[in-house]
């Protein structure tokens, strides 16, 4: 990706802030991202003109004359079932951009031991292409030196197919941490990121602005609110099927899915509400910056990036995604759940949350099967049905025998 890939209006803005001479001969490196265009801009050095905002000087010093530009292009999130159920009047792309930038600001304040990139500028005047400038905290910044060395161990070791809760699951984009290592990895994330973040938020209490991260009416995301979302998704799918698609298999699956949602609704009334926090929801290796301490030979988390799934929510959502998407099996997920209970003893059992996540996955996959699109366009129809089948098998194994009604007689565990 060359210099021409950075929109001219971004460069014009930077020239206005930093001076045209400072930008002369700048370099540009494109960064892989699913829903954003991301560039790392490097400048030749020297001192920019005296800046009214010292945060720019500080960011350029810490980043060794580098900045990061992000431009949002899509709005699929876990919270909107990958873009299929939109509950806001705000355009999904703009909603995601505002949520992510707000999350960066809160995380930077509440995780002082980590190097969260500072937000230097955010332009949300357009619905479809909001953009922002952040400080650079990557491997050539001042945060990595002779003591803390850059470490790619966890990313280099990711695998494309991994056993997960009873089945091999493909992950064609980034992969996953191998089953034998993911508990060690997840415990490091829990102790270095999740628990400190939540404890800091509880300590600050009312001093944080949750605008853009909450659900409608500035309310937190809860078990009950997600169940309501699944009911909306089910209604939308049933309506589409009634408009002409008489697929008997889909009709049968919709009937069983409704029973799943009703079972979640019945349980939701008994879920004890916990004080909401900032959740990241995607602490995979590609979203963290890792170092290695030369003195102790220990792995160190330097920063947490890519807060596009962030929300103001029940803390158990974070644990759920760590347990279900980062860990590889129920035993590992239970260890994470119990480790967090040392800080928050009123979590309740993990099983209802595992069922919720599985219904969440089913709604997302079925919406993609019926309406197309979604966040994983490389998945073909057979791939989707294989995943749907495996999710129903997981619900059966988690005690919901009625979900066998969604399975064909020839559905095997290896599908």
Give structural attributes.
415 residues, alpha+beta, five-stranded antiparallel β-sheet, three-stranded antiparallel β-sheet
Total number of helices = 12
- What is the average of the pLDDT values? 92
Q: Please give the share of residues in helix.
A: 40-55%
Which strand order do you get reading across the main beta sheet? 1-2-3-5-4
The main sheet comes to: 5 strands, antiparallel
Strand content: 5-15%
**Regions with little confidence, pLDDT below 50 for 5+ residues:** none
Any overview of this molecule?
The protein is α+β, with helices and mostly antiparallel strands and 415 residues long. Helix content is 41%, strand content 14%. It has twelve helices and twelve strands. It has helices at residues 8-18, 20-23, 54-62, 92-110, 153-156, 182-204, 223-242, 248-268, 316-326, 330-341, 351-371, 381-397, and strands spanning 27-31, 36-42, 66-72, 119-123, 131-135, 148-150, 161-164, 167-170, 277-279, 288-293, 299-304, 311-313. Strands 1-2-3-5-4 form a five-stranded antiparallel β-sheet. A three-stranded antiparallel β-sheet has the order 6-10-11. Strand 4 (119-123) and strand 5 (131-135) form a beta hairpin.
Précis, in short:
This protein is 41% helix and 14% strand.
Topology:
Blueprint: H1 8-18, H2 20-23, E1 27-31, E2 36-42, H3 54-62, E3 66-72, H4 92-110, E4 119-123, E5 131-135, E6 148-150, H5 153-156, E7 161-164, E8 167-170, H6 182-204, H7 223-242, H8 248-268, E9 277-279, E10 288-293, E11 299-304, E12 311-313, H9 316-326, H10 330-341, H11 351-371, H12 381-397
Antiparallel strand pairs: 1-2, 2-3, 3-5, 4-5, 6-10, 7-8, 9-12, 10-11
Helix pairs in contact: 6-9, 6-10, 7-8, 7-11, 8-11, 9-10, 11-12
């Amino acid at each position: 990706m060359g210099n021409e890939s950075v929109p001219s209006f971004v460069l014009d803005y930077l020239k206005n802030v930093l001076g045209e001479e400072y930008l002369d001969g700048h370099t540009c490196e494109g960064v892989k991202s699913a829903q954003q265009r991301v560039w790392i801009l490097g400048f030749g050095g020297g001192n920019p003109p005296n800046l009214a905002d010292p945060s720019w000087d500080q960011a350029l010093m810490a980043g060794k004359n580098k900045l990061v530009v992000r431009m949002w292009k899509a709005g699929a999130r876990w919270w909107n079932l990958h873009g299929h159920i939109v509950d806001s009047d705000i355009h999904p792309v703009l909603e995601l951009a505002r949520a992510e930038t707000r999350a960066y600001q809160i995380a930077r304040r509440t995780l002082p031991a980590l190097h969260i990139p500072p937000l230097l500028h955010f332009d949300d005047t357009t619905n479809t292409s909001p953009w922002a400038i952040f400080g650079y905290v990557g491997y050539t910044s001042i945060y990595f030196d002779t003591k803390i060395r850059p470490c790619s161990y966890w990313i280099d070791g990711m695998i494309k197919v991994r056993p997960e809760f009873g089945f091999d699951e493909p992950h064609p984009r980034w992969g996953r941490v191998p089953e034998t290592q993911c508990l060690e990895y997840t415990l490091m994330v829990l102790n270095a990121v999740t628990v400190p973040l939540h404890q800091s938020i509880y300590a600050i209490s009312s001093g944080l602005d949750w605008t853009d991260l909450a659900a409608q009416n500035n309310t937190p995301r809860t078990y009950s609110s997600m169940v309501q979302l699944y009911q909306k998704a089910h209604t939308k799918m049933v309506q589409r099927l009634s408009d002409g698609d008489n697929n008997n298999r889909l009709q049968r699956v919709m009937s069983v899915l409704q029973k799943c949602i009703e079972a979640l609704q019945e349980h939701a009334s008994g879920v004890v509400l916990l004080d909401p926090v900032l959740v990241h929801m995607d602490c995979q290796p590609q979203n963290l910056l890792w170092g290695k301490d030369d003195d102790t030979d220990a792995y160190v988390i330097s920063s947490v990036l890519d807060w596009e799934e962030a929300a103001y929510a029940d803390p158990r959502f974070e644990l759920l995604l760590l347990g279900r998407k980062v860990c590889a099996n129920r035993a590992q997920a239970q260890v994470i759940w119990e480790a967090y209970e040392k800080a928050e003893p009123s979590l309740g059992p993990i099983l209802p949350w595992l069922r919720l996540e599985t219904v969440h996955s089913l709604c997302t996959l079925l919406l993609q099967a019926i309406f197309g699109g979604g966040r994983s366009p490389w998945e073909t129809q057979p791939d989707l049905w294989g995943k749907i089948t495996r999710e129903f098998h997981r619900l059966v194994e988690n005690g919901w025998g009625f979900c066998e009604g969604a399975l064909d007689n020839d559905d095997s565990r290896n599908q």
